[in-house]
């Protein structure tokens, strides 16, 4: 897959990825991909990331049920950041964050403290119970 050669992978073979909601423009999350994750994302039309903490591929939604359909994949001008245009799906389609919120970017700097400014839509314990 020649198109993967254009990506500037870091020294660990990863590239940062931003997932942006297609309809609202909201930035939902930041993650990492390796070559296999990006290739699978393009082939499946669903987001597949690389979990650095687990050291393996992570098909978004495999545990939470909150999948991401990928509409478009873009590469920035330096070829070192990927932007996904996605639609979030699942039991509660507005949840992308493992904290049960719409977006992982729910904290805002107010004065000298980070404040949670968006609500928890679903208790994370109930999302990941198995």
UniProtKB/TrEMBL annotation:
Top-tier EC class: hydrolase
Domain Phosphoribosyl-AMP cyclohydrolase: residue ranges: 29-106
Gene Ontology BP terms: L-histidine biosynthetic process
Pathway: Amino-acid biosynthesis; L-histidine biosynthesis; L-histidine from 5-phospho-alpha-D-ribose 1-diphosphate: step 2/9; Amino-acid biosynthesis; L-histidine biosynthesis; L-histidine from 5-phospho-alpha-D-ribose 1-diphosphate: step 3/9
Stated role: Catalyzes the hydrolysis of the adenine ring of phosphoribosyl-AMP.
Cofactor(s) for this UniProt protein: Zn(2+); Mg(2+)
Reactions this protein catalyses: 1-(5-phospho-beta-D-ribosyl)-ATP + H2O = 1-(5-phospho-beta-D-ribosyl)-5'-AMP + diphosphate + H(+); 1-(5-phospho-beta-D-ribosyl)-5'-AMP + H2O = 1-(5-phospho-beta-D-ribosyl)-5-[(5-phospho-beta-D-ribosylamino)methylideneamino]imidazole-4-carboxamide
Protein localization: Cytoplasm
UniProt gene name: hisI
Amino-acid positions noted as binding Mg(2+) in the UniProt annotation, renumbered to this chain: 76, 78, 80
Native organism taxonomy: Bacteria, Pseudomonadati, Pseudomonadota, Betaproteobacteria, Burkholderiales
Domain of life: Bacteria
UniProt subunit comment: Homodimer.
Keywords carried by this UniProt record: Amino-acid biosynthesis, Cytoplasm, Histidine biosynthesis, Hydrolase, Magnesium, Metal-binding, Zinc
Family annotation (InterPro entries): PRA-CH, PRib_AMP_CycHydrolase_dom, PRib_AMP_CycHydrolase_sf
Manner of cofactor binding, per the entry note: Binds 1 zinc ion per subunit.
Binding positions (Zn(2+)): 77, 97, 104
This protein's name: Phosphoribosyl-AMP cyclohydrolase
EC number: 3.5.4.19
Annotated GO CC locations: cytoplasm
Any one GO MF annotation of this record: phosphoribosyl-AMP cyclohydrolase activity
Family recorded in the similarity comment: Belongs to the PRA-CH family. In the N-terminal section; belongs to the PRA-CH family.
